[in-house]
Amino acid sequence: MSDNAVYPVSSEWANNAIIDAATYDEKYRRSIEDPEGFWREEAQRLDWIKPFTQVKGTSFDQQDFGIRWFWDGTLNLSANCLDRHLETHGNTPAIIWEPDDPTSRNRILTYNDLHEQVCRFANVLKANGVTKGERVTIYLPMIPEAAVAMLACARIGAAHSIVFAGFSPEALGGRIDDCASTIVITADEGLRGGKRIPLKANVDEALEHHARDVSRVIVVQHTGADIPMDESRDVWWHEAIAAGSHICEPEEINAEDPLFILYTSGSTGKPKGVLHTTGGYGVWCSMTHEYTFDYRPHADGSNQIYWCAADIGWVTGHSYVVYGPLANGGTSLMFEGVPNYPDFSRFWHIIDKYQVEIFYAAPTALRALMREGDDYVTRTSRKSLKVLGSVGEPINPEAWEWYYNVVGEKRCPIVDTWWQTETGGHMITPLPGATALKPGSASRPMFGVQPALVDPEKGTLLEGATEGALVILDSWPGQMRSIFGDHERFFQTYFSTYPGMYFTGDGCRRDEDGYYWITGRIDDVINVSGHRMGTAEVESALVLHPKVAEAAVVGMPHDVKGQGIYAYVTTVAGTDDSDELRRELVQWVRKEIGPIATPDVVQFAPGLPKTRSGKIMRRILRKIAENDVGNLGDTSTLADPGVVDDLLANRPHA
Ligand code: 6R9
């Protein structure tokens, strides 16, 4: 297939979608020319307790920097996701849960069920002293209790901080400390591909070294494993919710009160606690979920079955497993397991089992499945599918074509949604009834989003078909509001590189048709299987090892993961740079951060290429890791050009 393939919108889609091409143009223009009017109307999709009169109060400039939306209004997002649907949709499935093991019992929670669970658990939180404005750490696998815990926090105005259940005790402890939560919600164990993840044991370990203020751990009994419980600190979820009332009135929450914190990796320092607030985020998730996936009930009033395969530990799980679909009264499928268990057909079996109409996943999973051949796909029906989504990293045209032709049988538009933890929801994406598709392009901006490209060095705006650093020129309601505990770092990280603009960290190309093509991170963040990893984080973990003097980490191309982790390590004098040590370092990083940070290559390096002022020249390290060594560029500014020869001679994959 050529690079310039274009897939026009089918007439069926154009005629039936919520947004067709003309509507897109009209709404987009209005959203930019009259943001106040546009968002005043769009925000009516939520039920407000006290209606807002103020709409947009935002500035990216240093003098009057600030971001607030709908700030004199009040609402409750849990009530928007639950209570308001009960009268007409109480018996409609809100969450369909598919377990890791396909022979285990699934669970279907109607809106009535979910509402009751959330009210009960909100009362448990209150009984344990959690009050409005506090933080609650959630370290749970993909089970319905995760959504219950999130919505219970939202109900009482506590901010949740979810830590992905694949993170190590060390990483968990750091995140609990940073947001100073006194309560942790976890499970006895998680299950993924038949493997047990010792979540409660991880929490115990985290609390040994960190987070000494945690006074309560609430434990979901999931696998039934025999785990130690600390009588003074730990309680079982099922016992706690059975003891309390099922009635809990939603708190009145200001639009700008925190909804959650989610830690994400940046180019420097520790992971940042990205802070999202209630009103704008709620509007953004609901709106984008509806328009991007063309999500609405069938003609007979029944729900489309929608499945976002992301983990709730990432922002995609927050916005598109929980808040977006539930705010819209939808049916959200939640899957505990992995794509290759019990075999490579699992995704497609689930789609057939529940007649999934909308499926949303990451390119890394698609590439891994594509490798195994079409047979695993074609032996299933998938006739129910209508829309396919992609998220987390650039989707290479080859994987796109496979998704489109083999999985979707040329019938389903692919929405390649570009966005970030920081943006709350979709920013650049096709809409199924409005946008002609180009494989590999996230295409055009969502309403209210003004992307632009700047010259990375000069910071000047670039016009027309060109390539540059991707910035956003003005605020949108779903934008993050701060870094928890460090508002100054928020400004510095995102608004100081190119003054007056939000800098995304991504590089991007814009073509003649105004389509955006994300090329990947241009900062020191690498994207491993769609998960963000700061090179600085992996380096800090490595240098904690007693035998490591210095480390530098860069990304390398990887067929399935998109990017892999390439670590250059200088050991302390007298160390034997053995394969055994190499393996030990890999295990060390897994223990410090978690399996997603597993280095793919460890190269021992007696010296790292540095400038005379001592700065590591990552450009050179990246080229070597990419095996692009014919063109190392100017090495004359190096303090010791000889180190490069050594690096080249000792490449593990040379
Ligand atoms: C939602 C999410 C954000 C980074 C982002 C970019 C990459 C996400 C993408 C994409 C190309 C897409 N990214 N979606 N790149 N096309 N459709 O993934 O958030 O974990 O914060 O990562 O992921 O590099 O800057 P997050």
UniProtKB/TrEMBL annotation:
- Processing and modification events after translation: Acetylated. Deacetylation by the SIR2-homolog deacetylase activates the enzyme.
Instruction: Cite a single GO BP annotation.
Output: acetyl-CoA biosynthetic process from acetate
Q: What is its EC number?
A: 6.2.1.1
Q: Which CDD domains match?
A: ACS
Q: What class of enzyme is it?
A: ligase
Q: Which domain of life does this protein belong to?
A: Bacteria
Q: What InterPro entries does this protein map onto? A: Ac_CoA_lig (IPR011904), ACAS_N (IPR032387), AMP-bd_C (IPR025110), AMP-bd_C_sf (IPR045851), AMP-binding_CS (IPR020845), AMP-dep_synth/lig_dom (IPR000873), ANL_N_sf (IPR042099)
Q: Which residues form the AMP-binding enzyme C-terminal domain?
A: 537-615
Report residues binding ATP.
Answer: G392, E393, P394, D416, T417, W418, W419, Q420, T421, D506, R521, R532
- UniProt xrefs under PROSITE patterns: AMP_BINDING
PTM annotation (N6-acetyllysine): residues: K615
Which positions are annotated as binding Mg(2+)? V543, H545, V548
Q: Where is the Acetyl-coenzyme A synthetase N-terminal domain?
A: 24-81
Recite the UniProt keywords alphabetically.
Acetylation, ATP-binding, Ligase, Magnesium, Metal-binding, Nucleotide-binding
Q: Does the keyword DNA damage apply?
A: no
Q: Which family does it belong to?
A: Belongs to the ATP-dependent AMP-binding enzyme family.
Function of this protein? Catalyzes the conversion of acetate into acetyl-CoA (AcCoA), an essential intermediate at the junction of anabolic and catabolic pathways. AcsA undergoes a two-step reaction. In the first half reaction, AcsA combines acetate with ATP to form acetyl-adenylate (AcAMP) intermediate. In the second half reaction, it can then transfer the acetyl group from AcAMP to the sulfhydryl group of CoA, forming the product AcCoA.
Supply the name of the protein. Acetyl-coenzyme A synthetase
